[in-house]
Structure formats: C-alpha cells, structure tokens
Specification:
Order of helices and strands of chain B: HHH
Shape of chain A: elongated
Number of helices of chain A: 7
Order of helices and strands of chain A: HHHHHHH
Strand content of chain A: under 5%
Radius of gyration of chain B: 19 Å
Largest sheet of chain A: none
Low-confidence stretches of chain A: none
Helix content of chain B: over 70%
Mean pLDDT of chain B: 80
Largest interface: A-B, 52 and 52 residues
Largest sheet of chain B: none
Structural class of chain A: mainly alpha
Mean pLDDT of chain A: 84
Distance between the termini of chain B: 40 Å
Oligomer: heterodimer
Number of helices of chain B: 3
Chain lengths: ~240, ~90
Amino acid sequence: MIEVVKKLEEFEGEVVKKFQDTRRRINSIDIDVHWYRRAFHAFGASLLFYYMLPNLDWINLLKFWVPPAIVVTAVVIEILRIKGKVSSDHFFGLRMYEKDRIGSYVFFAVAIIVLLRFFPQPIAIPCILCACLSDPIMGEVRHRFRMKYVYIFGFLVCMLFFSVAWYKADVRLLLLASFVGAFGAVIGETKKFWWLDDDFMIQMLPAILLGIIWIALPYIGFGDPGNSLDIIYPGIWPW
Amino acid sequence: MNKEKMSYMKTEIKNYDKIVRAELLFTPLLIALPLIIGIFLIYDWYVRGFSENNAAFTGQLMLGVIILIGNIVFDIPFIKSLVKSIIVLSKSKK
C-alpha cells in the first residue's frame, strides 16, 4: 500500500514538472508573439513604396488591382478560419478577441488601401505611419507605464509624423494638421471596440478629420493645395 | 477590453515547430523589406534631391529615416525573441 502511494506521489511530481515545463514553453512563445506583432506593424511602413512606383500603364494597373486582390484573399481566409474550416493554429499571433472575429491584420490592410487609394499623400502617409509605428510604440508604453503616458507619448509621436508629412504647408496649417491628426490617432488607438479594430481606427479617424480640413482649405484661406504638399515622388526607373 | 481578451491565442505544443517555421519564413521579408525601402527613400533623396540641390525631396529623407529607425527598434527584440523560441524548441525536442 505504501509503495503504491509512493509511486502515485512520484507520478504526481512528474506530471507537475511536465506541466510547469509546458507552461514555461507557452510563456516563451507568448513573448515571441508579442514582438512578432510589433515587427509586423512596423513592416507596414514599407507599403509607402506604393508612392515611389513610376507612373507607367502596367504599373498603374498593378497598383489598382493587386492591393484589393490581397485584401479580398485575406478576408476569404479569415471567413474560413472563423467558420472553422481553417485551423486558428495556422495563424500566428492572434489575440483571444480575434477568435470569432476578423483578424486585426485585415482591418490594418483595408485601412491602408483606403488611404493609399482615396486620400492625398499628406493625409495617407502620416496615418499609415501612426498605425505602423505609433501603435506599437503606444503599446510598449502601455506595458511599462501608466495610461496617461500613453496619451502624452502617443500624441507627441503622432504629431511628429503629421508635422513631417505637412512640412511643406503654411506653418499655421502645419500646426493645425499636426494637432488634429495626432488627436484623432490617439483617440482611434485608445478607444477599443470588439467589432471595429484600433488598427483601423488609428488610421481612419485622423484621415477623416484631416479630410474635412483638406476639403475646407480653399474656404479658410489656404487655397487648393493640389499635389504641392506631396512628399514622395514617383521613381524614374529605366524600364 | 479585458486582459483575457487581449491575451494571445494559445497553440498546441505539437504545432510549435510549424509556427516557428512560418515565422522564420516571414522573417527575411519582415526585416529586410522596410530596411530596403528606408534606404531607397534616402538614396532617392540623395540622387534627386541632395545632388541636384532640390529641397522638394527632403520629405523623402525624413520618411526614410523614420522607417529605418522605427523598424530597427522593433526588429532587434523580435530577432532576440525568435532566437529564444528556436532555442526553447530545440531543447524541448531533446
């Protein structure tokens, strides 16, 4: 009887050890997921290359069709995942709230495409940079400090991006756009909804606010800027 | 949103190697492309802006620097954590 109890205790000890080892491994992967998401966000900034592509017929055709095709494919894959036809195990770095909802990366991509297609450069570029760089920076600040620092630091970083994108504008317009854009981006990032992702909001909210200002520019004495505020110029490549 | 919902979805241990493999496949693209774009923006500023004394390209320089620094800041911890995952995975297989 005593031997059986001893064996049971040994077995229990092994199970606990194995459980602890498994938990340690899961935790280590969690850290990895965290930085993977951060790196993925930062990677999005490379999509600004879109503006550097030369204005040639075949390239314009690709610029028109390839981005929506990628998004539609991602949406179809996400629908299959939600319906359970594709296992969530194949998707690296999803959060729990994305289990029964379209993943953040689709919202991220849709917002980027809308910005690239429908908004002028001074609006689209800083909004994309906010989602790609400000969002992970604010996330890291949130991890380490209190919430008020997220607002302050996020606001300053976003303001930097908007002021870089509007540096060709009149100083008053630069300040107005930087302030409104940064305000929209911080609100978009900090207000979280289950059904609408912050990766979408951080881009679209400042874009809509600045879009209104952009339309109002001729009426508030700044004139129609046209393409004069563009900061990336299409490449002149040999082909 | 509560902490539980913000946590990452767990993956079965048996799928670890699949996941790390997928990550490894993406890594060159995730790291190299933004750096190439950042360098290209700076190069374009140098060729068409700095060399020809054209201030219109200064924005490209600033964007290039932002993209480069922003990506390097997040790539370093990402690579570190990836290496850590590979070590954990290889130890668990022994």
